[in-house]
Amino acid sequence: MRGKIKTILIFSIYVLVQFFISNCEAQNFTYKFVPSGIENDVKALPFFGGVKNPQFSNVDLNLDGKDDLVVFDKLGSVILPFVSTGSVGDIQFVYAPEYRNIFPKFDSFLLFRDYNFDGIKDIFTLPIGVASSAIAVYKGKIVDGKLTYELLTFPNYPQNYLHYLYNANVYSIYNATSDVPGVEDIDGDGDLDILSFDSGSTYIVYYQNMTVEEGLDYDVFKLVRKDPCWGKFVESGVSDSIFLSDDPAKCYDFNFKSPIGSNRHAGSTILPINLDGDDDMDILIGDTSSNTLIAVFNGGTSTQAWATSYDNNFPSLEEKIDISTFLAAFYVDVNNDQVKDLLVAPNISSGGQTYNQIWLYLNRGSNNNPDFHLTTKNFLSELTYVFGVGSFPEFVDYNNDGLMDILVGSNGLELRDGTDHAKLTLLKNIGTKSSPNYIVEDDNFLGLKSFSDVIYYPKPAFGDLDGDGDDDLVLGTNSGYLIYYENQQGDDGVMNFESYTFPLIDYVLGNLLAPTVFDLNGDGHQDLVIGENNNYLNYYQNNGDALSPFFEPDVTLAPNTEDLGGIFPTADTKRKVGTPKFLKTKEGLRFLIGFNKGNIEYYQTGNDLLEEPFQLIANLNNFREGNSIYFSAADIDNDELYEFVIGNDRGGISFFDSDIQVDDESDVVNTFYDSMQLKVSNPVLDEIIIKADYELIGKKWQLLDVQGKIMKSGTLENDKIDVKEMPSGVYFLNLGSGIARIIKL
Fold first, then answer.
1. Regarding the domain delimited by 678-744, which CATH topology (the fold level of the hierarchy) does it fall under?
2. Which of 60, 292, 477, 607 has the most beta carbons within 10 angstroms of its beta carbon?
3. Which residue, 607, 623, 606, is CA-closest to 615?
């Protein structure tokens, strides 16, 4: 609903400075490693975008003969490759995104297994681009010394899915899109078989690979439905209850009927694993209705499975697994000792815990008789920054030291009980002009956690709304309103927010508001452009005076508009969540907007930003960072090119180099990027004489050198600034909504 509410003034909290300085006509992006910390206090993997609902497999990515780790995060279907660099017994990885491009895009589940025994792991996954509860295989190959994958095709079957012969008919193997099947050598003959739940999530069906039995080439994948009730047990259709058969040759007689009004559960995961050292496969089951794993023990043989016991408090001899919902288990070697360890994580595509949700049990036993010991509940996530449910970063120099800091909005960490707290995290740049290094300066910036019951998905933007020469903060929320924080910056140059206004505009827009601050009409006053989740791009013109912003609340009243740039076709019914930014580039002003499908659209703007439609130049979709892209851009390493920091719904952030050239003037100043309605005398000897089309008295000003360092600052009492004591050189004057280049003789 879009409408009005009453404006409320409240007490204070929030900070930061937005800015974008740009020179952008580029479309090439590469991951940029940025360190965090110094000496003995260093994050090992600080900025790879976070990990939320991961699946794990061992793969030799760099072909050095040692297994590495590939993580597939079900939230956003993201592949995260890690190269192992540790010695025997060490858990040590380097994030290696350069290997992402060898993999196609996947969905639902991703398992690496060597089905044809050529020493190269192949891929088992959900078929891409089709709504099918099936299993596809991608065959691994080495081409020109690099790992590659291609879809395994079946010329005699209409779909390229794994299939089986039954009663002279051929059927696709069923595996629900929510499930993770078991892909292992079940019968001990050396080839890979399949275990998956039937469509009712009640029986486990065993599909036997006949390659060895029939003497076929290992590249041939011939399956038969060997047993429609593997283990002879059943799982309840409405819970995680297990019912064992007392007859090794007969499936449990399951006549359970759902109560009226109940819903059958749908969703199970299977890990075949020998838990007791008896040369047959047991299994670990995760269920959509359970917060733990169930171990089902095979008291039969490898060829005639019979479940004789189970443990729904697995592992009984260690701390019981307890993660919010629907778990999956993975058996991989994480510490280079050639013994597989157990990893457990949520198997959901959205929601769930963001803390204590990835449990690692190191194996002190053997692969066929494991001895699990809980080592951490935050595998990988303890080595990186995960800010919570979603991450919304914004570059800003909050302390005016010439180095770009970052403010990250998020919903905070979601705990086991489902609670989370919206918050702002300030990352301080402790590096240099050419080598950024970020640490957490404040993980509850402005005390936003105390307001998290009414504020969700806080998205920061910065600009000088009140025209006093320093940047204020505008915070987008999920409620349809904006929050405005006025910067009461002191002489030390550090931002200071003592009060805020909620809402900034008494008009209800859509959800997930993402503001940016920019002077679109060139009048010297900062306007607002606001993205949201309903295919609107809202423009609010600032009709206030030099020191007091004012916005006509109704976005439908001109010159306001909810269709800035005309970028959403009227026939487009797909709801997009847009996060807008303007960048100044050598090619001219550019408009970028990030979407919830993981892409950024890149537009050329016309001379009249309010009347001319934006022209799409490129769809930037090679980040592969998952969903809900939120980004900011600045030159953080002094290379005159934009770097991007990107947030996502996994809750971390990552950095990318671009080939977008930064506009010279904007790059040097690295603060204000507005309408340049400022004129000064040039060159100068003793004083700068200023002319502007807005009120000057009372404006704060800064004089910066070419490295962005503040050399002098103050508040204007007239139209002159005394510089006679300044050394000769080139300077830049920041004043209100203008920037001017000064040559001092």
1. Immunoglobulin-like (2.60.40)
2. 477
3. 606
